[in-house]
Amino acid sequence: MGDQLLISLCSPTLAGLKTGNLFTVECDDKEEFNREVRGFNKRLAPKGIRMIPVRFSRGRMLVYLYRPAFLKRDFGNEEVCRILKEKGYTYTNADRCVAELTRHLCQDPKFPHEIGLFLGYPVTDVLGFMKSPEEGVKYTGFWKVYGDTASALKTFAQYRKCTEIYNRAHKNGKSLEQLTVAS
């Protein structure tokens, strides 16, 4: 996993526009992969970014890259707390919630629908997805939109533009650390 992959998949989070990203990468050697993750964390922690491997399956690792400060902010929302509490999370502690999410991802055969709360998706859209992943969808982009389509389309355009700018900047010599906004 290289810097270019992170920039391609996680630019909105690196830029401070989004709480987190979830992505999958090929992984033949878990120990080597964990060393790589530790290296990224050493480089990005001063900027307020954390990366954790959350699930290994059939030679692929699911990775969560996020901004802990943003997650804590997001989890200050009463509706988010209510949803997390209903799902059995220790909703008053964002770090523990991440550990509990990791446990859910590893132990539960179904993907937890509340994961959108960990990625910074609008609560209305997370609730819509939790109610029915197929019914009531107004638009599908970076996530399924059940609520404010105009706002979501604006956000999607911002994420695409950010990724385009970051990819170009990296190809022109900007490092991952230079492209990562401190929070």
Could you characterize what this model shows?
- With 183 residues, this protein is of the alpha+beta class.
- The chain has one domain (3-173).
- The protein has helices at 3-14, 30-44, 68-74, 78-86, 94-107, 116-119, 123-131, 149-171, 176-179; strands spanning 20-26, 50-57, 60-66, 139-140, 144-145.
- The strands form 2 sheets. A 3-stranded antiparallel sheet has the order 1-3-2, with helices on both faces. Strands 4-5 form a two-stranded antiparallel ribbon.
- A hairpin with a 3-residue loop joins strand 4 and strand 5 (144-145).
- Helix 1 (3-14) runs antiparallel to helix 8.
- It is globular.
Write the layout of secondary structure elements.
Layout: H1 3-14, E1 20-26, H2 30-44, E2 50-57, E3 60-66, H3 68-74, H4 78-86, H5 94-107, H6 116-119, H7 123-131, E4 139-140, E5 144-145, H8 149-171, H9 176-179
Antiparallel strand pairs: 1-3, 2-3, 4-5
Helix pairs in contact: 1-8
Strand content range: 5-15%
User: Total helix count?
Assistant: 9
- Cα distance spanning the termini: 24 Å
Q: Percent of residues in helical segments? A: 40-55%
Structural class: alpha+beta
Low-confidence stretches: none
How would you summarize what this structure contains?
This protein has 183 residues and is an alpha+beta fold. The chain has helices at residues 3-14, 30-44, 68-74, 78-86, 94-107, 116-119, 123-131, 149-171, 176-179, and strands spanning 20-26, 50-57, 60-66, 139-140, 144-145. It has one domain (3-173).
Sum up the structure in keywords.
three-stranded antiparallel sheet, two-stranded antiparallel ribbon, 183 residues, 53% helix, alpha+beta, globular
